[in-house]
Amino acid sequence: MLTGQSDPSRCGLSPMQQAFLDAIVPRAIQIPQNFPYDSRSADYRHTSLLKASVNNGRLYFRSRSLAFRQRHQPTLQGLLSESDDTIFLAGSCGLELFNNLALSPLLLGRVMIVAYGPVARRRPDCRHELIGGRGDLISRRFFPRPDHSVDCSHLGYLANDDVRRLCRAFVSGAIS
To answer: What single-letter DSSP state applies at residue 92?
Structure first.
């Protein structure tokens, strides 16, 4: 999973994120945390929508800085070096975070991304699919013509059967 951090002190997946991930890939090949993948961080804790929105907005803009890239690029480089291919399920500003890490073309060749509800200034420079919700006014401002359109709002992707189906299809094509 690659999304913003509703709570900057935690990388634990929410129960909904974990259920979504479980529906897509076996646990044996999952990374059990969200960005920035710090296994020492505290477990998930519910954060109010207002606080989560503010935290994610701050992270979206901070991700454009050199300090962000210097801090988080080595972690992602290490993670990507552990396997031949890595698939990210990127929600909301996760695609912007990924793009701003400015990974090398060599590493980008080993990455695939399914971005649902993407909030980013551009598509990534790797294999990818963008899923947008017809009712997602936030993502549609950034990507008015995603690769796939589904019936949901910005907060409805993880519960949407069509999103799960599209992600499973993408992942099964990538690992078969």
So the answer is: T
